[in-house]
Amino acid sequence: MSMRFAAKARRGLVALTVAAGVAVGVSGCGGGGSGEDKPSGPASASSAGDPGPSTQDDDSEQPLAELRGSDGLLLRITSAQRDSGGFVTVNGTLKNDGARTAVIPSALSGNETEIIKNGRSLGGATLVDPKGKKRYYVLRDTEGRPLTTTGFTTLKSGATLAVFMQFPAPPAGVTEVDFQLPTFTSAGIKVSG
User: Fold this and answer.
1) Could you say which of 71, 82, 181, 188 would form a disulfide bridge with 193 (CB–CB 3.0 to 4.6 Å)?
2) 174 Cβ contact partners less than 8 Å away, ≥ 6 residues apart
3) Using one digit for the tens of pLDDT, what is the confidence trace for 35-55?
């Protein structure tokens, strides 16, 4: 990655992070909302402070992939959208299909010190372009925080949590990638946009 591209990407990520903070702050000012509205993108999905049970039935939308993890955890990937800013946003839901509260494995954060110091996240996720033989890691902001859902440690039985992850976009011609997350099975997904 060239230094010029990295600098532009960082500036874009800082702007995205600021916009996400403003969006979360503004949404907290509204009255009467249940807080269970479906996220419209990374800004609303990043507020994972309360991973309580969702009353939404996530089975209504056909997922791109379902990945099984440890302790009854199930990750349903609902979209992988290429954005004009040069990144891919993967959205989905993390569900506890187990009979008891699941402790979120620390391995999901990956093993990079910079990400781990920012708490639990999905920072260990990667997209792999099998044809181009290239792996894409979760993006980080200028302070090393992963651009993914963060701040969750447990998930009650039957509960779901809306999640997102952002990656650098593979070349425009690449529409199929493998999604990998530590402790979960891997799956092929289609990138749209």
Assistant:
1) 82
2) 129, 131, 132, 191
3) 333 333 443 333 344 444 443
Amino acid present at 162: A
**Quick one: DSSP state of residue 146?**
B
Does residue 20 contact residue 43 with C-beta atoms inside 8 Å?
yes
Cα(21)–Cα(81) distance, rounded to whole angstroms? Answer: 21
Q: Please, what is the Cα angle at 86 between 110 and 128, to 5 degrees?
A: 45
Task: Give pLDDT tens digits for 128-169.
Answer: 999 999 999 999 999 889 999 999 999 999 999 999 999 999
| Residues 6+ positions from 110 with CB-CB distance below 8 Å | 116, 123, 124, 125, 137, 138, 182
Q: How far is CA 116 from CA 41, 145, 170, 182, in A?
A: 24, 9, 25, 14
